[in-house]
Design goal:
Layout (H helix, E strand, L loop, with lengths): L1 H47 L4 E4 L5 E4 L1 H7 L22 H13 L3 E10 L3 E14 L4 E10 L1 H36 L8 H31 L8 E3 L1 H18 L3 E5 L8 E3 L1 H17 L6 E8 L3 E8 L29 H11 L4 E6 L3 E9 L2
Parallel strand pairs: 7-9
Antiparallel strand pairs: 1-2, 1-5, 3-4, 4-5, 6-8, 9-10, 10-12, 11-12
């Protein structure tokens, strides 16, 4: 009986194996269809992106590019795919800084943002491009690749230059009549144009003070334009930070006394070392921090300037007992044109200019604050 049933059992077993094979084959087919659909879906998305995109392999050869790349750079797939990125066009991407970023991406698992390339491209002329790169994983091959996005910002940079030039010219043209007006106003106030009543004298002095404020705003803006255009290079000479701080405190004492604010200076036990700095610019930073401290400190408060000699740098801190800065606004106080209070007078450029000056000197500047208790503004200057 067992021998008679054996062929039947073998047949059933073979049928089951065939069924498994058919099922596995069907699953594979479905999986392949799903992969193809996903690939087509991803390719469709990439083709709709207006910015040029490149996919690079581990050797930095071009695996693929989207339609925008070919259209904008006026090249063909034949001269692009399979080439090293550094060999494209007239070697426009062969830039030392870009080489380091790309070659470190896969080995060091990094990415980069907003790398600018300004170049005379063979097919499209002089352009400024912004590059961003991310790693992507090819799950089918189990390999990591680089997705490089390219954005043409030539027009944006041109508009920025034109804006700076127009505003700088406008501010400069305003400065000249202000200087002339201040000169004639001073002659009138001094009595050189005839005697004045007490009321007239007071009114003219108010006008002069307001003109001085406008003149300072314009000066701030002209300096800001210079810094923004990266035209400022500090003239470094041996500079005594302690002496400069003491001079500024003496100058500010009269203003502080009117508000019944005390100003004190804390120095280290040993002499403060000299630093290499642009004296006029560091003077501006110190004066700005002292002015702000006094301005935002109520009558009867205190301003303390502390100098600390640290390992490789000099630390200067200006502490006040003023109104403080709300926590949500603290991250923005060094931004250009930002003012903590909307009704505050000033250009909103003082701290932005101070930040540029200190960073150009190789130092750092930051602020700490507690609302209704006061603020501490600090900056460092490196030792020679």
């Amino acid at each position: 009986m067992e021998d008679q049933n054996k062929p039947r059992e073998d047949l059933i077993h073979e049928l089951r194996e065939l069924q498994h094979l058919f099922t596995d084959s069907e699953e594979c087919r479905r999986a392949e269809v799903a992969v193809q659909e996903a690939r087509g879906y991803a390719a469709s998305i990439i083709e709709t992106i207006r910015e040029p995109l490149l996919v690079l392999d581990a050797d930095l050869k071009v695996l693929s590019a989207n339609r925008s790349f070919y259209t904008i750079f006026k090249v063909t797939p034949e001269e692009t795919v399979g080439s090293y990125i550094y060999d494209l066009g007239n070697q426009q991407w062969d830039i030392p800084g870009l080489r380091v970023l790309l070659e470190d991406m896969l080995p060091q698992n990094t990415q980069f943002d907003d790398f600018e390339v300004e170049h005379d491209f063979t097919t499209i002329g002089h352009k400024t491009m912004m590059l961003n790169a991310r790693q992507i994983l090819n799950e089918e091959l189990g390999k990591r690749m680089i997705l490089l996005a390219i954005e043409d910002i030539t027009g944006l940079r041109k508009l920025e230059r034109e804006r700076r030039n127009i505003l700088s010219m406008f501010a400069h043209d305003m400065k000249n009549p202000l200087v002339t007006s201040e000169g004639f106003l001073s002659r009138i106030i001094s009595g050189k144009a005839g005697s004045l009543t007490e009321k007239q004298q007071n009114y003219l002095e108010i006008i002069r003070d307001e003109l001085n404020i406008v003149s300072q705003l314009i000066s701030d803006f002209l300096d800001f334009s210079k810094f923004e255009a990266q035209e400022y290079t500090p003239i470094l000479v041996p500079f005594n930070v302690q002496t400069e701080i003491q001079k500024n405190i003496e100058t500010e004492e009269m203003t502080a006394e009117k508000k019944e604010i005390t100003i004190s200076l804390e120095l280290p036990d040993t002499a403060v070392p000299m630093v290499n700095a642009d004296g006029a610019m560091i003077h501006r930073v110190i004066r700005n921090l002292l002015d702000n401290a006094i301005k935002y400190t109520d009558s009867g408060g205190a301003v303390t300037v502390k100098v600390t000699d640290r390992d490789n740098e000099i630390l200067v801190s200006v502490k006040d007992t003023g109104t403080g800065i709300p926590e949500d606004r603290l991250p923005y106080i060094f931004d250009s044109f930002y003012r903590v209070k909307r009704d505050a007078k000033g250009s909103g450029l003082g701290l932005s200019i101070a930040k540029t000056i200190i960073e150009t000197h190789g130092g750092r500047i930051w602020a700490e604050s507690t609302l209704a208790k006061g603020s501490v503004f600090s900056f460092t200057l490196p030792k020679p």
